[in-house]
Amino acid sequence: MFFFYAPRPALHLTLQQYEDLVAKAEALLSRLVVSENYDSVNNFLTLYDAYMASPDPALHEFFQKYNPPIRPKKNTCVGLGMEVMKKLKVLEKDFPGITKSMMLVSCDENIEDLVDYATSFPGPQGFLIETEKDHVMAAIHVRIAGRPGVFLSDLGYHISRVVTVMADRCYPHTGWFTQSDEPHCRKEYMYQLNLQNTNYIEWHERETRGANVKERLSLIYVAKAYLTAVSVTEKRNLVWDLRYAFIIYSIVEPPEPDLDQIRLKCSFH
After folding, report:
1. Rounded-to-integer distance, Cα 103 and Cα 221, Å
2. Arithmetic mean of pLDDT, 215-244
3. Distance CA 171, CA 159 (A)
4. In the structure, what pLDDT confidence band is assigned to residue 163 with cuts at 50, 70 and 90?
5. Are 152 and 139 a contacting pair, CB within 8 Å?
6. Tens-digit pLDDT profile for residues 104-130
7. Are strands 200-209 and 147-153 parallel, antiparallel or unpaired?
């Protein structure tokens, strides 16, 4: 089960103040993206060590009770989002109210039916079907000269810039930008409020490899703060498919069927 908190208050700024906020925030984020790496391996090994030291004979039984720690320098998107919020708190003096306005928000990746997902319920807490809650990032609702928008920071995807999503899609709306451009691959991102349900931000990703272009759509729920980032997203990221392969082939001998049983017998939602 995942839970959300009441909406956080919007941060009211002039355009000049918002531009100043972005400049100061990006100075902090540019240092943070260098000093903090995405690290899920150490967290997985911590899970393994805790299980081996526990009296529980079955891994799926232990996992249901396991509370993953958030530790410095060993962060997935959850810990990185928390680090972003911690760093941005130093801007409270310059931008009063920013601490109360910032929040962690949840993201479901690889959305196949945008209209169905965005219009079925006001938010993901209404779903009876499974939602993944794959990802977490930091967000702040803003009012720039009265115009509504959202300030996003996503260190989990190594994005050192601030992404601004304006409801009217006018400046300072970020639009498409190049996240990485290498000889073999270029990645471009774009964020915009969903017109049918403004509780969601659409995250469009375009990956180009030679003549091949692959597109992906994710949805970020920004109406309320995401309270179960540790117990849902962090825990989920410990046992998703690639982690199975890594542990089986590279780290330890798998304890028979238990790795597969985690997904079958543990509830993340």
Report:
1. 11
2. 84
3. 20
4. very high
5. yes
6. 999 999 898 999 888 876 666 554 445
7. unpaired
Cα separation, 187 vs 33, in Å, equals: 18
Q: How many domains does the chain have?
A: 1
Q: How far is CA 18 from CA 4, 167, 188, 217, in A?
A: 27, 15, 24, 28
What is the pTM (predicted TM-score) of this model? 0.84
Whether residue 187 is predicted with pLDDT greater than 80 in this model: the reply is: yes
Give CA–CA dist 24/15, Å, rounded.
14
Kindly state the average pLDDT of the residues 157-164: 95
| DSSP per-residue letters across 43-92 | HHHHHHHHHHTSS-SSHHHHHHH-----BTTBB-HHHHHHHHHHHHGGGT
First to last CA, the chain: 3
Q: Give me the domain span that covers residue 221.
A: 11-38+75-238
Place of tokens 């991102």: 189
Q: Is the sign of the CA dihedral 73, 79, 83, 84 positive or negative? A: positive
Domain membership of residue 100 (yes or no) is yes
